[in-house]
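Hypothesis: this fold can be encoded by more than one sequence.
Test: take the structure tokens below, design a sequence, compare later.
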């Protein structure tokens, strides 16, 4: 089940020399995800396949983290989560981690 906007809070990003740790808070539960910096990207897609219950932005785009943890993963994001993660990383590092 995907959480509604009211059940989410702003994600947190912790950065070190080789990793981004992204902490997603959904339904009063924190999930910590650690990605290699060199293999991290926030992407958007207008492909609605596999997005049952997901909320697109006003232009119909869905957002994901694509990255490398123990293996390559794709994590669905709300548009606001994606924006926050991209902004936090850019403010801290000057790096763009999005493809849009």
């Amino acid at each position: 089940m995907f959480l509604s906007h009211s059940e989410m809070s702003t994600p947190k990003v912790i950065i070190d020399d080789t990793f981004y740790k992204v902490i997603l808070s959904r339904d009063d539960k924190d999930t910590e995800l650690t990605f290699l910096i060199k293999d991290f990207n926030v992407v958007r897609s207008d492909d609605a396949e596999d997005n049952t219950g997901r909320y697109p932005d006003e232009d119909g785009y869905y957002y994901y983290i694509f990255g490398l943890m123990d293996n390559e993963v794709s994590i669905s994001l709300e548009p606001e989560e994606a924006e926050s993660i991209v902004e936090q990383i850019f403010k801290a590092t000057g790096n763009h981690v999005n493809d849009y």
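The radius of gyration is 13 Å. Residues 79-93 form the longest helix (15 residues).
Hypothesis status: open.
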